[in-house]
Design brief:
Order of helices and strands: EEEHHH
Strand content: 5-15%
Oligomer: single chain
Distance between the termini: 44 Å
Number of strands: 3
Radius of gyration: 18 Å
Shape: flat
C-alpha cells in the first residue's frame, strides 16, 4: 500500500481524508503477514492499513481472496468458486458480501468527492436525445 495514498479515517480529525500530508506513521506490525498498524500524528487515531479493505479481519490470504473474486466476477456460482479455490462455500459468500459492501462504500466516497451525493442518477435517462 502506498503511503502517499493513506489518509486519516477519523472524521473528527483536521486531516480527515487528506492524503499526502505526511501525518501518518507506522507504530507497529501485527499478524502473520505483518500488516502495518498506523497512527495519525494530527489526532492520534490508530488504524490498520487494511482496515477499510475487504481483507481486514479475514484469515484467508489475499491471493486466494482475489482469485475467488475473479471467479465470482466471471459468473461462477459460490459453490463452484469454493471448489476452484479450495474454500468453504460460506467463506466465499462472506468474501463476496464484504466486497460488495466495500465497493458500495468506495462509490459513496467517490460521489461525495464529486459533490454528487444524493444526486438522482435515474433522472439522467430523462434527458432529450
Amino acid at each position: 500500500m502506498q503511503f502517499a495514498r493513506i489518509y486519516c479515517p477519523n472524521k473528527k480529525c483536521a486531516d480527515y481524508r487528506r492524503s499526502g500530508e505526511k501525518n501518518i506513521s507506522v507504530i507497529d506490525r501485527y499478524g502473520k503477514s505483518r500488516q502495518r498498524l498506523l497512527r495519525c500524528k494530527t489526532c492520534g487515531f490508530r488504524f490498520s492499513e487494511r482496515r477499510w479493505t475487504i481483507f481486514f479481519g479475514l484469515h484467508t490470504d489475499e491471493n486466494t481472496i482475489s482469485k475467488a473474486l475473479m471467479f465470482l466476477l466471471e459468473g461462477k456460482s459460490i459453490r463452484e468458486t469454493a471448489e476452484e479455490v479450495g474454500l468453504d462455500k460460506d467463506t466465499v459468500q462472506r468474501i463476496w458480501k464484504r466486497a460488495a459492501k466495500n465497493w458500495e462504500m468506495l462509490l459513496e466516497e467517490f460521489l461525495e468527492d464529486l459533490n454528487l451525493k444524493g444526486f438522482d442518477f435515474e433522472s439522467l435517462t430523462a434527458f432529450p436525445r
